[in-house]
Each structure stands twice: as structure tokens, then as C-alpha cells.
Design goal:
Elements: H1 12-25, H2 38-49, H3 57-62, E1 65-67, E2 74-85, E3 91-101, E4 105-107, H4 109-120, E5 123-124, H5 126-141, E6 145-154, H6 155-158, E7 169-174, H7 181-193
Parallel strand pairs: 2-5
Antiparallel strand pairs: 1-4, 2-3, 3-6, 6-7
Helix pairs in contact: 1-2, 4-5
């Protein structure tokens, strides 16, 4: 997780003003007791949900980059995430599974989860987020290969439009050693059937 701290921005007052206007345009009374602080709460929530724009995922990986001769697959699976779809600004949420094969360097395991958090805390589409996670790890650690699989439910499909409650979208991307079907298959088997 990125932490529970409240993200304060110089844009807070302007955001509050815009949300005040939006609530009014929707036909509500912003002076009603339950809505008095809503513009400020929503502004703070949006700043928190998009704070990934102000964080450098490469720097996060570099901060715990260690020389190590381990050269087998490293998998961090079932990384919970929440993001906002850039088309409707509604949440999508699910799990990311990330694997890399070190090439002389490893990183702290929690840093992989932080990379997922940083990219998910931006206005996103699932396809781009999958690609960004993969590219960040590949560029920073230069491993023999990276593979990322993201599984998510999209509120824009559940609450509006087709209103399909149980559909799950899966995206994947990979580099290097994961171009080999056998390596990809090993990863997929481990994330689907591997247990502690």
C-alpha cells in the first residue's frame, strides 16, 4: 500500500470548488447537512486515489536493488489493487501477479507491490497499467524477463452500460525469457495452483 497518510495538494481548494459545482449541477443542495463537507471529502479522496502521479516507481525499485546471483523465477502474486478507469472515473479493482527472472540484481519484494500501487493510483486503463508495470521492472532491474498478469472487475461494466456483475478482465504482458511458452506456462501454473 502507499500508506494511509492524507495527501494535501495546493489544488485542494480549487477541487473543492469544482465538486461543489458538480453536486449543485446534479440537482442537490450543497447546504444540506449531509453534503456540507462532501466537496472537501471528495477532493481529498481524488487526490489520494491519484497520488501515483507524484511518485516514481523506478526510484522505488532502485531504493532496494541488491546484487544477487539468484537466476530463477521470482513471483509476487495476488497483489490487491484499486484504480480509476480513465473513461468514466469509476473504480476497477482486482489482483496483479508479477514475475521476473533476475539477471544479477533483485529488488525488495514489497517494492514490486509498491510499483503496482503507484501505477494503479492514476487514471488508468487495465491494458496500459499492465504494460507500465512490466516496462518499469524491465527498465530498472534489467532482468532476463518479466511477466505481469492483471485480473480485474470494472465498475463501469457493473454499474452502467452492459451492467454485467461477474465479468473479469484479464490482461498480460511479458518480455525476455517469458517469450518461451514453457516459461509462461510455469508462471501461470504457479499463480493459479501454487499454495503456501
Amino acid at each position: 500500500m502507499l500508506g494511509k497518510e492524507e495527501f494535501i495538494s495546493p489544488n485542494l481548494e480549487e477541487l473543492k470548488s469544482h465538486y461543489h459545482s458538480i453536486i449543485t449541477l446534479l440537482g442537490e443542495d450543497t447546504e444540506r447537512e449531509g453534503l456540507l463537507k462532501t466537496p472537501e471529502r471528495v477532493a481529498k479522496a481524488m487526490l489520494s486515489l491519484t497520488k501515483g502521479y507524484h511518485m516514481d516507481p523506478h526510484e522505488v525499485l532502485q531504493s532496494a536493488k541488491f546484487q544477487e546471483e539468484y537466476s530463477q523465477m521470482v513471483i509476487v502474486k495476488d497483489i490487491d489493487f484499486f484504480s480509476l478507469c480513465e473513461h468514466h472515473m469509476l473504480p476497477f479493482y482486482g489482483k496483479a501477479h508479477v514475475a521476473y527472472i533476475p539477471n544479477g540484481y533483485i529488488t525488495g519484494l514489497s517494492k514490486i507491490a509498491r510499483v503496482v500501487d503507484i501505477f494503479s493510483h492514476r487514471l488508468q486503463v487495465q491494458e496500459r497499467m499492465t504494460l507500465q508495470i512490466k516496462e518499469c521492472i524491465q527498465e530498472t532491474l534489467n532482468p532476463l524477463g518479466v511477466m505481469v498478469v492483471v485480473e480485474a472487475k470494472h465498475m463501469c461494466m457493473q454499474m452502467r452500460g452492459v451492467e454485467k456483475q461477474n465479468s473479469i478482465t484479464t490482461t498480460s504482458d511479458f518480455t525476455g525469457a517469458f517469450n518461451q511458452a514453457k516459461t509462461r506456462e510455469e508462471f501461470m501454473n504457479l499463480i493459479q495452483h501454487g499454495t503456501l
